User: Fold this.
Amino acid sequence: MKFNTILTIILLAACTSLSMAQDRYLTRSGSVKFFSTAPLEDIEAHTNKALSIIDIKKGEVAVDILIKSFEFEKKLMQEHFNENYMESDKYSKATFKGNYGSNENIANMVDGTYDVVAKGDLTIHGVKKAIETPVTITVSGGKLSANMVFMANVKEFGIKIPKVVVRNIAEEVEVTASFEYEPYK
Amino acid sequence: MNRILIIAFLLSTGFGLKAQDDLLDLLNNEQTEETTFATSTFKGARLINGHTVVTRKKSELEFVISHRFGRINSGIDDFFGLDNSSARFSLEYGISDNLTFGIGRNSFEKVYDGFLKYRIFRQSEGVKNMPVTITGFTSMAIRTLDNPNFTDDDFSSKVSYTHQVLVARKISPGVSLQVVPTYVHRNKVLDNQENDIFALGFGGRFKLNKRVSLNVEYYSRLTSELADNIKDSIGFGVEIETGGHVFHITFTNSRSMVERGFITETTGDFSGGDIHFGFNISRVF
Assistant:
């Protein structure tokens, strides 16, 4: 009798922990790309090492990217990006933390494509700024993915572009992110 | 029974606490440690006269134009040295990210030189920890202007070799230091000079702001010679970097821009005002 009670309780505890784990989905290989176009030069960089986690019950999402993981076609550009603009020795990460409200279908992993709006704080170059961006979340066969495109203004994050290169570097940068989540254990 | 309930309660609250973790903190813990390499230890492949640990990236071609004017203390007759200018042009190409090949020509003594530079270790932190960047440098220089002091000045006597091990560390985002054990071999020298010269170079880059830095360089000769007119090479410079260009304004007591020349044959006395004003411009394609 006593044994059965213990067993039941342990099983129950295990079950609750299991169900909690399934609320959260994680990716370690999120793809983030940014692109800017200026009269003289297009600048493009990409990383596929972005970390992101999503809590489908609470409708919360977080993203964590190492600035040094961005790769440019021109290595010199990459060096300037880290050294002169992002100061990645000092500000090693870009992060986002926010929520997209509650969505029953996503929370219950019902197959489909859902357009939601994510609101939260984007931190780049040590400057935190509230943003709002549409996000497309797709649930398919127990898998979860998120895609978004938004514009960021580098000036708003305290990144100065000197006059001499103003024709090479645009102030508006288009950021495209794509995350394929796996259940987080 | 109570005990069991307490345990179960503890268990469930334990999991509950875990679930309440901040998502960003959670990601922070998930971030796997990677190797981060020190970037921009130096901006250019040259500090003042000598090389830095920097190699060109694969397929990058760098064109370097360097000028040294005459001595500032030569007075108004020579317009403080500006009448006498010598130039060195060089092309430096990245065969791989770690291997650079370069050729150059210095109008002073009409010297042609070729070099190979290989980055052996890169300063890094994280999974792979390496405190310094180490680059090997080897060059051969051929003087084509006859030396009037040599009676028999054949081809082989015009050749010299320089081998260096450049060791640098980016100490902080604003300060990089470099030490350069150097060996120079000259095939032919005057009676009071040595064929083989060992020297130790010291250099530093101190960032004044994001794009401007102060560079210093000093080569101390370790081999003593009878010739007493030779001095250690000293240089100061301001480095300005804009996009693909690196621009140096330099003050040095050396006239030559080839290793053999400035390390072993500098005759200027810096404190006596034998200072050559000059500049280096580099463009990466």
The mean pLDDT of chain A is 87. Chain A has three helices and nine strands. The first strand of chain A starts at residue 24 and ends at 37.
